[in-house]
Write a structure and sequence with these properties.
By secondary structure, the chain is of the alpha+beta class. It is built from 3 helices and 12 strands, in the order βααβββββββββββα. The chain has helices spanning 16-31, 35-51, 208-212; strands at 10-11, 74-80, 87-93, 101-102, 108-114, 116-128, 133-145, 149-152, 159-164, 170-176, 185-189, 194-198. The strands form 3 sheets. The chain has a 6-stranded antiparallel beta sheet, with helices on one face. A 3-stranded antiparallel beta sheet has the order 4-11-12, with no helix packed on it. A hairpin with a 4-residue loop joins β11 (185-189) and β12. The chain starts with 9 loop residues before the first strand and ends with a helix. This is Cysteine dioxygenase type I.
Length: 213
């Protein structure tokens, strides 16, 4: 094992609420390998997390001007497993801002903790990522309010953008089956049918290759 390899889970918000939630997630993962059944089993615990006040510190609920997504969007790592197969993070989207159209490349649950968002969901019609081409079809627009959440199960419903429609920043909580901020994903431009690789990063924690450079 090299010194750079992680050896323990990382809690950037270390509270009983987060510890209890992660324990429930890890117990469910150990018993259920199928992502579709897993996310269904995790719905009650995720709903409780969204409806519990006071566990998210203010420093993880602020816009971030140096955002990898642009628009002052803050992405704050709250928890990451040692093997990088699970992450929990908050996404802060200022009022009126919109994320790029992007994918996640992992199963997940995404829900609103504060504010309101308009989510636009896309389906790929034809893609050639090596050539930088991706034709997308807008298949759904929906309003997401505080306490509401949805699932991600690639390749279905994995490409979307969100716009904050509330007068204050929206804060969403993401539970993903990868180290989302540090994996290379895809940013799409539906108007030009183009796609480029991107890594959003975290606003509070560098990715490992950044930390070593």
């Amino acid at each position: 094992m090299t010194p750079q390899e992680p050896t323990a889970d990382e809690y950037y918000v270390d509270s009983p609420v987060v510890r209890e939630f992660i324990a429930a997630v890890q117990a469910a993962r150990a018993a259920e390998p199928d992502p579709a059944r897993l996310v269904e089993q995790l719905r009650p615990a995720f709903s409780r997390l969204l409806q519990t006040d006071g566990w998210l510190p203010d420093e993880f609920a602020r816009p971030y001007e140096a955002s990898g997504m642009g628009g002052g969007i803050g992405q704050y790592l709250l928890y990451r497993s040692a093997d990088r197969s699970l992450s929990l993070f908050s996404l802060v989207v200022p009022a009126g801002s919109t994320t790029p159209v992007h994918d996640h490349l992992a199963w997940g649950l995404v829900g609103l903790y504060r504010g309101e968002q308009l989510e636009r969901v896309y389906a790929p019609i034809a893609t050639d990522y090596d050539a930088g081409q991706a034709n997308l079809e807008l298949i759904e627009e929906r309003t997401v309010r505080a306490g509401e959440f949805y699932t991600l199960l690639p390749p279905t419903d994995d490409i979307h953008s969100v716009t904050t429609t509330s007068s204050e920043a929206s804060i969403s909580i993401h539970l993903l089956g990868n180290d989302t901020g540090c994996v290379v994903r895809h940013r799409f431009d539906p108007e030009t049918a183009s796609v480029t690789p991107f890594r959003s990063g975290y606003s509070n924690v560098p990715c490992e290759d950044q930390a070593r450079s």
